[in-house]
Design a protein that fits this description.
Layout lengths: L4 H4 L3 H12 L2 E4 L8 E9 L5 H15 L5 E8 L6 E9 L2 H8 L6 H9 L3 E8 L3 E4 L1
Helix pairs in contact: 3-5
């Protein structure tokens, strides 16, 4: 399809966001990503402090396998500084929610982690997010 010169110009929103990002020292990249199905999975856990050592050990063990997956991009595990029982797991995948559930959640290495979540009655709230825009420091 032929694109006119006008179609290649950035939108007003892209100009504004790019300018704001430049002022604060970030690089703005439009939502065009080489990742086909960029999916962000955010899981909020409520974990009593007495159970956190076991939880952290198990999730670190799971991630020794996850980082080997072809569709895995990145992950972070963060703790609320004001509420230490609130733990957030942030994962980025080149997957769709359906493919993730079908292909990733059935991996053998996840079984012990999933069992621990149930056995310890850890509260877990997952959410799927799609990327709108990305910013990175230059």
């Amino acid at each position: 399809m032929f694109r006119s010169f006008k179609d290649t110009l950035p939108s007003r929103r892209e100009i504004i966001v790019g300018a704001v990002a430049a002022v604060v020292g970030l690089r703005y990249t439009k939502g065009d990503s080489p990742v086909k199905n960029k999916l962000t999975l955010v899981v909020r856990f409520r974990i009593p402090e007495l159970q956190q050592a076991e939880f952290f050990a198990k999730i670190r063990e799971v991630f020794t396998h996850i980082v080997q997956e072809n569709t895995f991009i990145e992950a972070s595990l963060v703790q609320d500084m004001r509420d230490p029982e609130s733990i957030l797991n942030y994962e980025v995948w080149d997957e769709t929610p359906d493919s993730f559930m079908k292909d990733q959640m059935k991996k053998d290495y996840r079984a012990a982690f999933e069992k621990m979540i149930v056995d310890l009655k850890i509260e877990r709230t997952p959410a799927w997010y799609s990327t709108i825009d990305d910013w990175k420091r230059e």
